[in-house]
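Student: Hello, beginner here. Can you help me understand the protein record under this note? Any guidance would be welcome.
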Amino acid sequence: MNQFSYLSFFLLAAAAVLAYMWRDTFDAESVQEARVLVTGASKGIGEQIAYHYARFGANIVISARGEDGLKKVAQKCVKLGAQKVSYVTGDMSDPADPDRVIRYALDKMGGLDYLVLNHVGNSYVEFWNRDPDHVRTLMQVNFVSYVQMTAAALPVMEKSRGSIIVISSMAGKLASPYVAPYTSTKFAVNGFFNTLQHELAIQKSNVSVTIMILGLIDTETALNKIKGFSSMTAYPAGEAALSIIKAAATRQKEAFYPWFHYFTCLFRDWFPFIKDLMLSDINKQ
């Protein structure tokens, strides 16, 4: 075989392996009547996650800061076919609220099969303004509260063979300008939960942890924030939400939406200089 033949064989083999790894093995019945807690569910991706679980007939508790938004989402979930829907407000910048939300969900459902950690604090797209207090507050909301809720849920989820899914971002894989506080929280999330995956495996735990790496999603909040700063393509929140549910149900360790960001991360590691080219292309100013 010449060099071209070897390369062709390698590429075909790699494509076959990836096709096998990424085949869709999701069974909708596996989440029917499942007990699910979704945070950050009053709008955006969390709202779409709640709707998909409702269509699959799950038992759902949704949480967010605003009660009005939660009421509307809960009402729609009932119409879509959820077994049962409850909501609880929670401000994750308050260190007492993560545990309180978990206790509420456990009281309402008697257990927990899926914990979807999706909430995020308010951040800005701008050069860092040298405000450490904002970083501290955002770290509590975007990272520490995830750890608190995981700690509170783990003992119960051991019994249910539950799945924790952590909504992360390409910002936690590929540092870029204008989002230093947000990026720091997502790097923390990726580092902590990747380590937790290893520790749970060593302990032969029944609980799976999925880290979901999202690109830019077309939520109103995200699009308003990046206006004038980035020319990246935004992808549908509904599709992202379904990908999240499938990843958790099939107990994937790490999943990407859109899927091609898996290769974005590979290229970043193999060819570091490409990162600068990508950032100069997508970032304005």
Summary: The first strand starts at residue 35 and ends at 39. The CA atoms of residues 33 and 205 lie 23 Å apart.
